[in-house]
Amino acid sequence: MFEIIDRDLILWPVAGHLGILFVLYCWLSAARFQKRAGQPVEALEARISANLKNQFEAPILFYALVAMLWAEDLVNWAYLALAFVFLAGRIWHLLAATLSTNIIRRGLIFTVNWLAIYAMWALFLLPRLF
């Protein structure tokens, strides 16, 4: 599980997250176009915009670690699995935050995302600090 694997595999979750950003920007543009056309999409537009902003908060920790893992050729199956958990959580968060107003569900998803990030950082930092 901790055996080093092809470092480029860790770029797939990064590409997936970039895909999420692309979808959100397109969706936000479409919602704003509908708003200008007089359709009542203000609430949806606000949720999409808020989710897009959120996609630049926690993921910065993900991108920073992935860059170090890739540059130092330290990618293993544990990092890769956690990166895909993080990506799945970001997709799940996008859906929950834009298509519903269920705050409890969003909190659970937030927890999954943070646990994945913290686990990745713990795997990276603990052997280096102790």
Task: Outline the structure in words.
The protein is mostly helical and 130 residues long. Helix content is 78%, strand content 0%. The protein is built from 5 helices and no strands. Helix 4 runs antiparallel to helix 5. The mean pLDDT is 96.
How would you sum up this structure in a few lines?
With 130 residues, the chain is mostly helical. The protein is 78% helix and 0% strand. It is built from five helices and no strands.
Distance between the termini: 21 Å
- Mind telling me the C-alpha Rg? 17 Å
Largest sheet: none
Multimeric state: single chain
Q: What is the topology?
A:
Layout lengths: L10 H26 L5 H13 L4 H13 L5 H23 L3 H27 L1
Helix pairs in contact: 1-2, 1-4, 2-4, 3-5, 4-5
Give descriptors for this structure.
single chain, 130 residues, mainly alpha, 5 helices
